[in-house]
């Protein structure tokens, strides 16, 4: 969980409170995936203009993703207050008022939109704003409180970063960024349901229909296991489509089989510590898989 830095008196500083609303570590990984989408969109080493567009794109996407996270904290302040994991959030504790959170989210979103409009391109601006709406409104307001498939459908917005990154550099889209989007889309269920397994009581208390609450622990474990295999298959596509080389293939297989191994063990027998490890592995998995795509792009080995 993201810790809020605390000043001498035990009260987090105002800046730390606002910063915490942006779900910093989630957004860092989102921006990382977007930046890799950008790098893959440039055939060789970026020139000066491309570097500038990449920097502005990363900043704009960062600001709008942070705005979406802050908006989520605003909408969910009462739900967050009921869950142990989220009850520390400044909006849940009433340390930041709804007006302050809304003003902060609007300011971040406007700043990000302006940067994308002035220094990147209109396609990236509209796609990033659509992603904001997808997460902050469609997922948070509509899907999350109504269906256990909330994170599957809502996961589409979390999966957008490589598409945004690609659009920022090329100003158009092709099959490659959508393939990366598919990978994050299929990664989201095992990422989230591993956590939901050991946070099921929290979700039940908050009245949220997460899969372990509505369909039980065993069914959720089966879903985690199945998704790890579907994910493994999807991660082979960049190699099979000639987008990545052997280095990526080896990384995708090694990481994917490890994720399947976590899924298999979790499915066979529930163990809370194992569910926690599966969740944390999911984060390393995505970061390393995307790092492998990047390294492979600059150090191509084998047939493409
Ligand atoms: C609908 C989609 C998603 C859902 C429901 C979801 C859910 C969650 C939840 C509930 C946590 C909090 C864990 C905690 O407080 O201990 C978390 C953590 C995290 N998620 Fe996701 N996630 C989603 C998509 C993503 C995406 C797209 C990324 C990045 C590309 C991501 C990266 C992370 C990271 C890095 C953390 C760890 C945060 C920390 O260290 O505090 N998640 N996720
Ligand atoms: C513009 C752009 C790139 C937007 C990205 C949107 C975004 C921040 C997606 C990440 C998904 C996320 C933080 C899910 C957390 O689930 P949750 O909200 O259910 O978790 P919680 O219970 O911790 O609030």
UniProtKB/TrEMBL annotation:
Question: What is its pathway?
Answer: Porphyrin-containing compound metabolism; heme O biosynthesis; heme O from protoheme: step 1/1
Catalysed reactions, as listed in the record: heme b + (2E,6E)-farnesyl diphosphate + H2O = Fe(II)-heme o + diphosphate
Query: Its membrane topology, per UniProt?
Result: Multi-pass membrane protein
Could you name the Gene Ontology cellular component terms for this entry? plasma membrane
The record's subcellular location field reads:
Cell membrane
Q: Does the keyword Cell membrane apply?
A: yes
Q: Which GO terms describe its biological process?
A: heme O biosynthetic process
Q: Which UniProt keywords apply?
A: Cell inner membrane, Cell membrane, Heme biosynthesis, Membrane, Transferase, Transmembrane, Transmembrane helix
Other comment: Carbon 2 of the heme B porphyrin ring is defined according to the Fischer nomenclature.
Q: Which family does it belong to?
A: Belongs to the UbiA prenyltransferase family. Protoheme IX farnesyltransferase subfamily.
User: What is the name of the protein in this document?
Assistant: Protoheme IX farnesyltransferase
Q: Which gene is the coding source of this polypeptide chain?
A: ctaB
């Amino acid at each position: 969980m993201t810790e809020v830095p605390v000043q001498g008196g035990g009260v987090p500083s105002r800046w730390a409170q606002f910063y915490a609303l942006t779900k910093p570590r989630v957004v860092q990984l989102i921006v990382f995936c977007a930046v890799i989408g950008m790098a893959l969109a440039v055939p060789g080493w970026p020139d000066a203009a491309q570097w500038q567009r990449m920097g502005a794109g990363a900043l704009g996407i960062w600001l709008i993703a942070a705005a979406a996270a802050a908006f989520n904290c605003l909408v969910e302040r009462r739900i967050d207050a009921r869950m142990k994991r989220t009850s520390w959030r400044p909006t849940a504790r009433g340390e930041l008022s709804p007006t302050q959170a809304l003003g902060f989210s609007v300011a971040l979103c406007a700043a990000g939109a302006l940067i994308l409009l002035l220094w990147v391109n209109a396609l990236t601006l509209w796609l990033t704003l659509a992603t904001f709406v997808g997460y902050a409104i469609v997922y948070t307001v509509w899907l999350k409180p109504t269906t256990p498939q909330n994170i599957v459908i809502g996961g589409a917005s979390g999966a957008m970063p490589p598409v945004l990154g690609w659009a920022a550099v090329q100003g158009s889209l092709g099959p490659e960024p959508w393939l990366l989007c598919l990978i994050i889309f299929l990664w989201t269920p095992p990422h989230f349901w591993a956590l939901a397994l050991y946070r099921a009581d929290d979700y039940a208390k908050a009245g949220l229909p997460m899969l372990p609450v509505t369909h039980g622990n065993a069914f959720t474990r089966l879903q985690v296991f199945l998704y790890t295999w579907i994910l493994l298959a999807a991660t082979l596509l960049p190699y099979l489509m000639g987008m990545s080389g052997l280095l990526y293939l080896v990384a995708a297989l090694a990481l994917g089989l490890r994720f399947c191994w976590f899924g298999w063990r979790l499915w066979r027998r529930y163990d809370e510590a194992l569910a926690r490890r599966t969740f944390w592995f999911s984060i390393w998995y995505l970061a390393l898989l995307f790092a492998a795509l990047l390294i492979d792009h600059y150090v191509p080995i084998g047939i493409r």
